[in-house]
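Pasting two entries for a bug report.
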Amino acid sequence: MTEELLSRRVYLGLGSNLGNRVARLVDALDALVAGGIQIDAVSALYETPPWGVTEQPSFLNAAASGETALPAAAILELAKHIEADAGRDFDAPRWTARPIDVDILLIEGETIATETLTVPHPLMHERGFVLIPLVDVAANVDHPGQRQTIGQLAGALPDSERTGVVEVEPAGWYPAAG
């Protein structure tokens, strides 16, 4: 007998730095909805400097939250499918340019540490390009393991992680949310 999962909230980070970045983000959000995640909140859109490998175009980043009954592995499979459909090269070096990146940041009530998935996302609490958009949709959500809310973690970011994270479109740029 399979156990049916109850709907719970999932928080996702999205980024793009190749092609029509806004269109890629919209397509990814639409695909998440079509795949079984009821997106009901999307952050403002932020232009952010590349992280890790800095000799590449700037990113557009956003965060989204929604309800789903999909198991974590299915959410990951959906994210990877969206990335592959957009042309992401999974053999490219880490932190290089990509048409779309969809990361599972948090899943309500779940902490996961497997070979293929870690939730909460392992370095999200240190990265401005993740936390600043995430505050827009999850400011009062607790980060399991850090014992602080997303808003508190973002407030504690060093200036080096805030520099260059610039809001370019207010919340509402993705009209299907809400």
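Entry 2 (this is the one that rendered wrong in the viewer):
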Amino acid sequence: MRRKKKYHLHLFILLSILLIALVISALYLRPYLLQPRMFRVHTCTCDFCKDAAAPISSSELLDDLNDVQLEHAQIGGLKQTFDTDSDFLKSVDMLVKKDILVHLVDCKFFHVDDLRHSHPYLVPEAVNLLKDIGVEFQKKLKEKGLKDYRFVITSVLRTDESQHKLGRHNGNASNNSAHRYGTTFDITYNKFMDGDTVAYPSKVPHIFAETLIDMRKQCRFLIKKEHHQSCYHITVAICKESLTNRAEQ
């Protein structure tokens, strides 16, 4: 009888310890589990001005040449670009499964616009960059006593086919575009999202530009302000460490 009671006591203690461990684990993992799947990727913390995979220097200008952006895209992006939209769609599930590309969806930081000539996929480092831009942007908005506006992404990954179609309407669209490598995206600078409503707040574009200038000083990306398309054309800067981690996977 005593042995039975002792056994039950030990079992109760063991189950209590397991329950406490589960509660602690849930509390610890909760922030990670609640964030969108697209943000659950490795974030490199290198000094981008020194350790980027391609040369980049700190700058306050939003005028990086397309050739320089292309160099970064070719080094840090897809090794094989796609000729047609159908070729891409056949391969995209495998690329996502292997964490080569991440599916981009709306979140508290940004809205993905109706994409006519591109696909909502980027390399993980570019998705993390979008999150970081959103965090810094909303931090500045809060400091100014403004709402948490979201920025709007207007173009992402393109195939040769979609690039060619776009070229008929957009004179800035080069056939050899950085958008083909999954490292590059466009963000409009003349409209934002107030909740689920498109908004054109007068003060916000300047605050968004300040955010981008601050991050360009840190060499987080290459950027070109395209006045004809009313957007910022941005290519992520990727650390050598991130490329090394990819090779080891």
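Dev reply: Rendering is fixed now. As a check, the viewer should reflect this: The longest strand covers residues 221-226.
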